[in-house]
Amino acid sequence: MPAVKNVLKHVSTETAGRKRKCWRSNKHVIMKGELCLVVIEGPMDTTTYCSECARPMLERAQLELAAITTQFEE
Ligand SMILES: [Zn+2]
């Protein structure tokens, strides 16, 4: 049993094995070999984002995590 549970299992990064499209805009192209953000929304629902779109999403997630963390501070 791991000591600390990972609650961000639905968010990860992947290196694109082939050219991909960003889910937010089909004008955003993720080239083969580029890092992309992978978000698993459900069993058959995985979305991929380019780095330009990933940054504000991760910044927002950090703010939300910080807000949650603050509630547990003594
Ligand atoms: Zn994008």
Q: Largest sheet, if any?
A: 3 strands, antiparallel
Sheet with most strands: strand arrangement: 1-4-5
Proportion in helices? 25-40%
Write the H/E string, N to C.
Answer: EEEEEH
Structural class by sheet pairing and helices: alpha+beta
Give the C-alpha Rg.
15 Å
The backbone outline, from C-alpha atoms, is elongated
The domain count comes to: 1
The low-confidence runs, each spanning 5 or more residues with pLDDT under 50, are none
In this entry the ligands are:
zinc ion
Chart the SSEs and their pairings.
Layout: E1 11-15, E2 20-21, E3 29-30, E4 35-42, E5 45-49, H1 51-71
Antiparallel strand pairs: 1-4, 2-3, 4-5
Bound molecules: zinc ion (ZN).
Zinc ion (ZN) binds at residues 22, 24-25, 28, 49-50, 52-53.
Task: Walk me through this protein's architecture.
By secondary structure, the chain is of the alpha+beta class. It has one domain (11-71). The protein is 28% helix and 30% strand. The protein contains one helix and five strands. The protein has one helix spanning 51-71, and strands spanning 11-15, 20-21, 29-30, 35-42, 45-49. The protein has a three-stranded antiparallel beta sheet. Strands 2-3 form a two-stranded antiparallel ribbon. Strand 2 (20-21) and strand 3 form a beta hairpin. The mean pLDDT is 94. The protein binds zinc ion (ZN). The site of zinc ion has 8 residues, from helix 1.
